[in-house]
Protein backbone atom coordinates (compact mmCIF):
# COMPACT_ATOMS: atom_id res chain seq x y z
CA UNK A 1 0.00 0.00 0.00
CA UNK A 2 1.39 3.41 -1.00
CA UNK A 3 0.50 5.70 1.86
CA UNK A 4 2.47 8.48 0.18
CA UNK A 5 0.21 8.49 -2.84
CA UNK A 6 -2.89 7.93 -0.75
CA UNK A 7 -2.18 11.14 1.17
CA UNK A 8 -1.42 13.01 -2.04
CA UNK A 9 -4.77 11.91 -3.44
CA UNK A 10 -6.60 13.09 -0.33
CA UNK A 11 -4.82 16.46 -0.41
CA UNK A 12 -6.05 17.02 -3.95
CA UNK A 13 -9.41 17.99 -2.43
CA UNK A 14 -7.72 20.78 -0.50
CA UNK A 15 -5.31 21.47 2.39
CA UNK A 16 -5.71 19.27 5.48
CA UNK A 17 -3.88 18.52 8.70
CA UNK A 18 -2.69 15.10 9.79
CA UNK A 19 -5.71 14.14 11.91
CA UNK A 20 -8.12 15.04 9.12
CA UNK A 21 -6.07 13.10 6.61
CA UNK A 22 -6.10 10.04 8.86
CA UNK A 23 -9.88 10.24 9.26
CA UNK A 24 -10.38 10.74 5.51
CA UNK A 25 -8.13 7.79 4.72
CA UNK A 26 -10.10 5.45 6.98
CA UNK A 27 -13.38 6.84 5.62
CA UNK A 28 -12.33 6.08 2.06
CA UNK A 29 -11.02 2.61 2.85
CA UNK A 30 -13.80 1.65 5.22
CA UNK A 31 -11.22 1.38 8.03
CA UNK A 32 -9.91 -1.81 6.41
CA UNK A 33 -6.34 -0.52 6.83
CA UNK A 34 -5.99 1.05 10.29
CA UNK A 35 -3.60 3.97 10.24
CA UNK A 36 -1.82 5.69 13.11
CA UNK A 37 -1.53 9.46 13.29
CA UNK A 38 2.21 9.10 13.84
CA UNK A 39 2.61 7.31 10.54
CA UNK A 40 0.60 9.98 8.75
CA UNK A 41 2.76 12.75 10.23
CA UNK A 42 5.97 10.90 9.37
CA UNK A 43 4.81 10.42 5.77
CA UNK A 44 3.81 14.08 5.50
CA UNK A 45 7.31 15.03 6.61
CA UNK A 46 8.82 12.85 3.89
CA UNK A 47 6.47 14.30 1.27
CA UNK A 48 7.45 17.80 2.37
CA UNK A 49 11.13 16.87 2.14
CA UNK A 50 10.60 15.63 -1.41
CA UNK A 51 8.77 18.79 -2.43
CA UNK A 52 5.43 17.08 -3.04
CA UNK A 53 3.53 18.93 -0.28
CA UNK A 54 4.07 22.24 1.47
CA UNK A 55 2.86 23.68 4.75
CA UNK A 56 -0.19 25.81 4.13
CA UNK A 57 -0.63 27.22 7.61
CA UNK A 58 -1.84 26.43 11.13
CA UNK A 59 -5.47 25.99 12.15
CA UNK A 60 -7.11 27.30 15.33
CA UNK A 61 -6.01 24.22 17.26
CA UNK A 62 -2.37 24.73 16.29
CA UNK A 63 -2.31 21.88 13.77
CA UNK A 64 -0.20 22.31 10.65
CA UNK A 65 -2.13 21.98 7.38
CA UNK A 66 -0.51 20.72 4.21
CA UNK A 67 -1.29 21.34 0.55
CA UNK A 68 -0.19 19.74 -2.71
CA UNK A 69 2.61 21.39 -4.64
CA UNK A 70 2.83 21.41 -8.44
CA UNK A 71 5.31 18.54 -8.20
CA UNK A 72 2.89 16.69 -5.92
CA UNK A 73 0.07 16.99 -8.45
CA UNK A 74 2.35 15.75 -11.21
CA UNK A 75 3.42 12.76 -9.11
CA UNK A 76 -0.22 11.97 -8.33
CA UNK A 77 -1.16 12.04 -12.03
CA UNK A 78 1.81 9.78 -12.79
CA UNK A 79 0.76 7.36 -10.02
CA UNK A 80 -2.76 7.06 -11.43
CA UNK A 81 -1.38 6.44 -14.92
CA UNK A 82 1.14 3.68 -14.14
CA UNK A 83 0.38 0.09 -13.10
CA UNK A 84 1.08 -1.15 -9.60
CA UNK A 85 4.05 -3.50 -9.49
CA UNK A 86 3.47 -6.98 -8.15
CA UNK A 87 5.19 -7.29 -4.78
CA UNK A 88 6.16 -10.96 -5.12
CA UNK A 89 4.79 -14.09 -3.42
CA UNK A 90 1.66 -13.53 -1.34
CA UNK A 91 2.61 -12.85 2.22
CA UNK A 92 6.37 -13.17 2.05
CA UNK A 93 6.41 -14.09 5.75
CA UNK A 94 4.21 -17.11 5.06
CA UNK A 95 6.34 -18.25 2.12
CA UNK A 96 9.46 -17.92 4.27
CA UNK A 97 7.82 -19.80 7.14
CA UNK A 98 6.95 -22.76 4.89
CA UNK A 99 10.41 -22.87 3.34
CA UNK A 100 12.08 -22.94 6.75
CA UNK A 101 9.52 -25.31 8.29
CA UNK A 102 10.24 -27.84 5.56
CA UNK A 103 13.83 -28.13 6.78
CA UNK A 104 13.25 -27.71 10.53
CA UNK A 105 13.88 -31.04 12.29
CA UNK A 106 11.13 -30.67 14.90
CA UNK A 107 8.44 -29.04 12.73
CA UNK A 108 5.88 -30.79 10.55
CA UNK A 109 5.48 -28.44 7.60
CA UNK A 110 2.09 -29.91 6.66
CA UNK A 111 0.76 -28.90 10.07
CA UNK A 112 1.97 -25.33 9.42
CA UNK A 113 0.08 -25.37 6.12
CA UNK A 114 -3.07 -26.73 7.78
CA UNK A 115 -3.02 -24.04 10.50
CA UNK A 116 -2.75 -21.32 7.86
CA UNK A 117 -5.49 -22.90 5.73
CA UNK A 118 -7.89 -22.83 8.67
CA UNK A 119 -6.98 -19.21 9.42
CA UNK A 120 -7.54 -18.14 5.80
CA UNK A 121 -10.84 -20.04 5.66
CA UNK A 122 -12.10 -18.25 8.77
CA UNK A 123 -10.97 -14.86 7.44
CA UNK A 124 -12.60 -15.50 4.07
CA UNK A 125 -15.87 -16.47 5.76
CA UNK A 126 -15.79 -13.23 7.76
CA UNK A 127 -15.08 -11.09 4.69
CA UNK A 128 -17.95 -12.71 2.77
CA UNK A 129 -20.28 -12.11 5.72
CA UNK A 130 -19.31 -8.45 5.92
CA UNK A 131 -19.85 -8.05 2.17
CA UNK A 132 -23.31 -9.62 2.39
CA UNK A 133 -24.26 -7.27 5.22
CA UNK A 134 -23.04 -4.30 3.20
CA UNK A 135 -24.91 -5.33 0.06
CA UNK A 136 -28.10 -5.85 2.05
CA UNK A 137 -28.55 -2.07 2.21
CA UNK A 138 -28.24 0.70 -0.34
CA UNK A 139 -24.73 1.99 -0.79
CA UNK A 140 -25.00 5.76 -0.76
CA UNK A 141 -21.84 7.17 0.81
CA UNK A 142 -18.38 7.03 -0.79
CA UNK A 143 -17.12 5.33 2.37
CA UNK A 144 -19.55 2.42 1.91
CA UNK A 145 -18.58 1.96 -1.73
CA UNK A 146 -14.90 2.05 -0.75
CA UNK A 147 -15.57 -0.49 2.00
CA UNK A 148 -17.20 -2.83 -0.53
CA UNK A 149 -14.29 -2.58 -2.97
CA UNK A 150 -11.75 -3.22 -0.21
CA UNK A 151 -13.73 -6.22 1.08
CA UNK A 152 -13.90 -7.71 -2.40
CA UNK A 153 -10.15 -7.28 -2.78
CA UNK A 154 -9.62 -9.05 0.56
CA UNK A 155 -11.92 -11.85 -0.59
CA UNK A 156 -9.98 -12.29 -3.84
CA UNK A 157 -6.66 -12.31 -1.97
CA UNK A 158 -7.94 -14.85 0.58
CA UNK A 159 -9.28 -17.09 -2.19
CA UNK A 160 -5.95 -16.92 -4.02
CA UNK A 161 -3.99 -17.71 -0.85
CA UNK A 162 -6.32 -20.60 -0.11
CA UNK A 163 -5.66 -22.07 -3.57
CA UNK A 164 -1.92 -21.60 -3.11
CA UNK A 165 -2.01 -23.37 0.26
CA UNK A 166 -3.97 -26.26 -1.24
CA UNK A 167 -1.28 -26.52 -3.90
CA UNK A 168 1.42 -26.47 -1.20
CA UNK A 169 -0.34 -29.23 0.73
CA UNK A 170 -0.60 -31.42 -2.39
CA UNK A 171 3.00 -30.72 -3.40
CA UNK A 172 4.35 -31.56 0.06
CA UNK A 173 2.31 -34.76 0.15
CA UNK A 174 3.96 -35.86 -3.11
CA UNK A 175 7.43 -34.83 -1.99
CA UNK A 176 7.13 -36.24 1.52
CA UNK A 177 4.58 -39.10 1.44
CA UNK A 178 3.59 -40.41 4.87
CA UNK A 179 5.66 -43.37 5.99
CA UNK A 180 3.72 -46.61 6.31
CA UNK A 181 4.38 -48.49 9.57
CA UNK A 182 6.60 -51.51 9.14
CA UNK A 183 4.71 -54.79 9.28
CA UNK A 184 6.29 -57.79 11.03
CA UNK A 185 7.50 -60.50 8.69
CA UNK A 186 5.67 -63.83 8.51
CA UNK A 187 7.19 -67.29 8.29
CA UNK A 188 6.07 -70.04 5.97
CA UNK A 189 3.20 -70.95 8.32
CA UNK A 190 1.92 -67.37 8.32
CA UNK A 191 3.01 -66.69 11.89
CA UNK A 192 4.83 -63.47 12.78
CA UNK A 193 8.56 -63.80 13.19
CA UNK A 194 10.64 -61.83 15.67
CA UNK A 195 13.97 -60.56 14.44
CA UNK A 196 16.97 -59.07 16.17
CA UNK A 197 16.14 -60.46 19.64
CA UNK A 198 19.15 -60.70 21.94
CA UNK A 199 20.54 -64.19 22.35
CA UNK A 200 18.64 -66.00 25.06
CA UNK A 201 15.74 -63.57 25.08
CA UNK A 202 12.35 -65.26 25.42
CA UNK A 203 10.16 -65.49 22.35
CA UNK A 204 6.43 -64.98 22.73
Automatic annotation (TrEMBL):
<feature type="domain" description="Transcription regulator PadR N-terminal">
    <location>
        <begin position="7"/>
        <end position="77"/>
    </location>
</feature>
<dbReference type="InterPro" id="IPR018309">
    <property type="entry name" value="Tscrpt_reg_PadR_C"/>
</dbReference>
<dbReference type="InterPro" id="IPR005149">
    <property type="entry name" value="Tscrpt_reg_PadR_N"/>
</dbReference>
<dbReference type="Pfam" id="PF10400">
    <property type="entry name" value="Vir_act_alpha_C"/>
</dbReference>
<protein>
    <submittedName>
        <fullName>PadR family transcriptional regulator</fullName>
    </submittedName>
</protein>
<feature type="domain" description="Transcription regulator PadR C-terminal">
    <location>
        <begin position="91"/>
        <end position="172"/>
    </location>
</feature>
<dbReference type="Pfam" id="PF03551">
    <property type="entry name" value="PadR"/>
</dbReference>
<feature type="region of interest" description="Disordered">
    <location>
        <begin position="179"/>
        <end position="204"/>
    </location>
</feature>
<dbReference type="InterPro" id="IPR036388">
    <property type="entry name" value="WH-like_DNA-bd_sf"/>
</dbReference>
<dbReference type="InterPro" id="IPR036390">
    <property type="entry name" value="WH_DNA-bd_sf"/>
</dbReference>
